[in-house]
């Protein structure tokens, strides 16, 4: 779990006009620390893309800026009855989470897809290139969000869901989830998908694009949502997870926040056990 706690790191404050208790800025040491721990996980990679849902060249080029390579896949041991799509955090790739699902959240009838984000310049880190699902602009509560980047990344996630449905897995047997930045994208992608999903998961994450909800998005306003957060998380503080739960609960009563007392910006065995139980109850039984 230690490796995942180092590489799956992401510092972000939800832009909120509903709570004055959130910090509005971070000190210079915080900025330096973030750049150091994220930079330590970087490696040179080339961009490529496997189109999952369209032969249109323009769509392929756009999605190619979101993902790279073939996702890491954990194949089901038994009959394929459900699928989990899980998105990694900033500076990471999908391999580690695929290993975690293979060893810690093993469900025989469930396929797990862990895609890899493309590298991109991240404004927050002085333009440094690193794996990221979308751009980040700042560390304060008023920082703008990458609207177009988030939208394009969500379209990519929707294309993965569409491909599983085309392969014969019903939408209500599909869960989309992720960690930190990837968890935020999973929540947004799940809530904006046009069909009712089996579940949504956000680990150590937050609620993106909150002013758009509920809006016209209704298909997943009753979908079960699992939020997991460490009480000792100093990168994405627990207060952000709690606010995310409160905001989502305004239009979806089926969101639950699971708090882990000694966990930092990472995962732990208890969280993984409870995640496995959530997946089992949501899409297997």
From TrEMBL:
Organism of this sequence: Caenorhabditis angaria
Region entry Disordered, spans: 52-74
Gene Ontology terms describing biological process: fatty acid metabolic process
Main location class: cytoplasm
Similarity annotation: Belongs to the AB hydrolase superfamily. AB hydrolase 2 family.
Keywords, in A-Z order: Cytoplasm, Fatty acid metabolism, Hydrolase, Lipid metabolism
PANTHER family listed in its UniProt record: LYSOPHOSPHOLIPASE-RELATED, PALMITOYL-PROTEIN HYDROLASE
SUPFAM superfamilies according to UniProt: alpha/beta-Hydrolases (SSF53474)
Enzyme Commission numbers on file: 3.1.2.22
Reaction(s) catalysed by this chain's protein: 1-hexadecanoyl-sn-glycero-3-phosphocholine + H2O = sn-glycerol 3-phosphocholine + hexadecanoate + H(+); S-hexadecanoyl-L-cysteinyl-[protein] + H2O = L-cysteinyl-[protein] + hexadecanoate + H(+)
Protein name per UniProt: palmitoyl-protein hydrolase
Bias-annotated ranges (Polar residues): 61-73
UniProt domain Phospholipase/carboxylesterase/thioesterase: residue ranges: 70-281
Compartment(s): Cytoplasm
GO molecular function: carboxylic ester hydrolase activity; palmitoyl-(protein) hydrolase activity
GO (cellular component) term, any one: cytoplasm
């Amino acid at each position: 779990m230690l490796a995942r706690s180092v590489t799956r790191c992401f510092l972000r404050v939800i832009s909120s006009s509903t709570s004055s208790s959130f910090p509005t800025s971070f000190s210079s040491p915080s900025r330096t620390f973030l750049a150091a721990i994220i930079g330590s996980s970087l490696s040179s990679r080339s961009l490529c893309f496997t189109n999952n849902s369209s032969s249109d060249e323009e769509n392929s080029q756009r999605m190619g800026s979101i993902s790279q390579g073939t996702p890491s896949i954990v194949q089901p041991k038994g009959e394929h009855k459900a699928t989990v799509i899980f998105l990694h955090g900033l500076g990471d790739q999908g391999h580690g989470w695929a290993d975690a699902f293979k060893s810690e959240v093993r469900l025989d009838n469930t396929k797990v897809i862990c895609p890899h984000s493309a590298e991109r310049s991240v404004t927050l880190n002085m333009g440094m290139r690193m794996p990221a699902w979308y751009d980040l602009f700042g560390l304060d509560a008023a920082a703008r969000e990458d609207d177009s980047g988030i939208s394009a990344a969500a379209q990519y996630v929707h294309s993965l869901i569409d491909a599983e449905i085309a392969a014969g897995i019903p939408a209500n047997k599909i869960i989309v989830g992720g960690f930190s930045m990837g968890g935020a994208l999973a929540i947004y992608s799940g809530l904006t998908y046009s069909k009712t999903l089996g579940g949504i998961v956000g680990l150590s994450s937050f609620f993106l694009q909150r002013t758009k909800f509920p809006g016209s998005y209704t298909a997943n306003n009753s979908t079960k949502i699992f939020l997991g957060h460490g009480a000792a998380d100093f990168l994405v503080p627990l207060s952000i997870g709690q606010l995310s739960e409160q905001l989502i609960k305004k239009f979806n009563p089926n969101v639950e926040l699971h708090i882990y007392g000694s966990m930092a910006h990472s995962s732990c065995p208890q969280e993984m056990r409870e995640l496995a139980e959530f997946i089992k109850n949501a899409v297997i039984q």
